[in-house]
Amino acid sequence: MNRKIAPAVLRGSALAFAATLALTACGGGGNDAGGGSADGANADDVAAALEEGGELTVWAWDLTVQDVAAEFEELHPNVDVEVVNAGTGNDQYTALQNAIAAGSGVPDVAQIEYFALPQFALADSLTDIGALGASDLEGTFSPGPWNAVQQGEGIYGLPMDAGPMVMYYNTEVFEKFGVEIPATWDEYVAAAKTIHEADPDVYITNDTGDAGLTTSLIWQAGGKPYTVDGTDVSIDFTDEGSTQFAETWQQLIEDDLVAPINSWTDEWYQGLGDGTIATLNTGAWMPGNFESGVQAGAGKWRVAPLPQWEEGGTATAENGGSSLAVPSATENAALAYAFLDYASVGDGVQTRIDGGAFPATTADLESEEFLNREFEYFGGQKANELFAESAANVVEGWSYLPFQVYANSIFNDTAGQAYVSDTPLMDGLKSWQDASIKYGTDQGFTVSE
Amino acid sequence: MTTASPPPAVLGTQPKPAKRAPKRTQKRSWSGWLFIGPFMAVFALVFLAPIAYSIYLSFFRNQLVGGNGFVGLANYSQALQDTQFWSSLLRVTLFLAVQVPIMLLIALLVALALDSGRLYGKSFFRISIFLPYAVPAVVASLMWGFMYGTRFGLVGNINSALGTDLPNPLSPDLILAAIGNIVTWEFIGYNMLIFYSALRVIPKSLYEAAEIDGASQFRLVTAIKLPAIRGALVVATIFSVIGSFQLFNEPAILQGLAPNSISTYFTPNLYAYSLSFSGQQYNYSATVAIIMGVITMVIAYAVQLRGMRKEG
């Protein structure tokens, strides 16, 4: 669920003032980097394109992109940027896919979430922006998002935000029931039992089967259910990480310890405010939603590191987050890249941070102003420190399926059944695996278990 | 129509009827087409072209890897073996078998009650029953979805107020009944109106004659009213059959509230939608839509045949 809404409402940690950007757009200079090229265009062409100017159409649902575009136009008077909201998440992907299939009306820049990026990259719908300058950006972004925009040898987008996971918790609930803040998932399950036994109306968290959360927690546990090598795909939810997740989560489901409340519903916002839902394990983009949607919880909520699978561990995962990509149908890839660069690496980053986005750029994540910001909502806690720490500890090597958009859409048909029937979660994941394999095979992939 | 004037002159000078005949038919068909041309153009564009295009689509398969290719009837054979498709068809059939009779019966009773002339505040009653039909299906589904909520909804309120333990209408076991309830609520008024208008045109003299013969009210209904509105009953049934097979709005809206109860293949239409919009399987989706269209037509036609035969 959060894949649809999360990036749309990235109004989290608004920064008070500008952090110095150590990063500069790698505009000029030679380019010896590998990777493919966009019609032979390189970094020099980007600078030239900016001089020359032109028109750009940007499809993005993130509201801060609008401000970034306005600034960009001011900076480059020859460039005319039109930002279009073509829908959030899936709606936009459908529109984009249709435009690409029709060969007309394709935007020059599109916001695409990390999990959906491989699907577009694989279909050759996106420009490999490596030669345009992106290949020089190694180290600019935190590893999770940077890894996510690369597909094989190519770079298909620039990370515009990130969702390193943390645990948000309601201190009042924990104090009331005298429960310690869980540091491991075993403690989490124990806390869930204690809380729910003490008051049957209170739950440790809400979950009705969420593909994004499931894959993220498996990711954190070190599981790699998806391996992708070009068109060779394997899907296996029996590896250690997946099993560990399933066994732990099974206890929560079986004993009805998770509230049967769908995320992003009125009921959910109420539950977060009135103490029905005690914790929330999600991305660093959440604070904005708390501030705007859960006023009743102001001052009660805090941020803690995500509970660990192993005691003393620090592993985390990403949940949500978007990139900006250049569809290959664009006629002005160089200019489009210039916009990407401005929005994701250049001054646009600060604009977006001010607008509430959680950045993916390491320089911002490490800046003092950013880290020292005190969140009034979280009782003055310096939440960005925890977010940044999480961003640095994302387990490497995760990959999504090249057809993750569809796979996520059938999660509730399969794995979700564990939440409403006697089907064990492990079996549910197995049927999710089978259904995904079937779809992959139908789509011409070589899929194995 | 300047072309219309020469023929008489031509006819007069041409003695051979053999030559005359083809010329005349040619003229005649040309002017005929002029009249129906605009209609045919629109008809072909908005009715035939989409169907033809769907059929065309259903012979291809476009894959993420490998691109587009002609596959003949492969999509059809796949659909016929597709357990998800058949389970969705079975679900709407069950829905049809249970919900439609209930809805039509209630609508009929209401129409008869209104027609009996014994109700006080008839027009108020009539408009209130018809009102739900004026509520868009999406709004109705959302509204009922909230009422079904076991925590903050009506069900939840009843449970906490009366201490009852009503089951969750959005659970997998009850979801079909819950949807049936919404659809019934929405369409009773519509069907009632069909029945009521049919009842209104029955000549009063028949009732008078029956009264003279000493017929009871019940006999009046079974011997005069029901036979007289059989046509309307058949029409309402056919509409309901089609409506049931096309069930989409209600499950699609409730899916957001009960994702584990309503699968992406809950009804054939929802299945076609999911295939197309989340799966990019436009070709297979078109195939499912065509098969479903054919099945609906066959069943609706069977209902019509049966209804009409009885009438004769």
From TrEMBL, chain A:
Coiled-coil ranges per UniProt: none
Keyword match Transport: yes
GO BP annotations listed: transmembrane transport
InterPro entries per the UniProt record, alphabetical: Bact_solute-bd_prot1, SBP, SBP_1_CS
Keywords for this protein: Signal, Transport
Signal sequence annotation: 1-18
Assigned protein family: Belongs to the bacterial solute-binding protein 1 family.
Protein name: Sugar ABC transporter substrate-binding protein
Species this protein is from: Arthrobacter pityocampae
TrEMBL record, chain B:
Membrane topology: Multi-pass membrane protein
UniProt KW keywords: Cell membrane, Membrane, Transmembrane, Transmembrane helix, Transport
CDD domains: TM_PBP2
Compartments, as annotated in UniProt: Cell membrane
One GO term describing the cellular component: plasma membrane
Region of interest: Disordered: 1-25
Transmembrane segments: 33-56, 92-112, 124-147, 174-196, 228-248, 282-303
Domain ABC transmembrane type-1: 89-303
GO BP: any one term: transmembrane transport
Superkingdom in the source lineage: Bacteria
Family to which the UniProt record says this protein belongs: Belongs to the binding-protein-dependent transport system permease family.
Name of the molecule in the record: Sugar ABC transporter permease
Source organism: Arthrobacter pityocampae
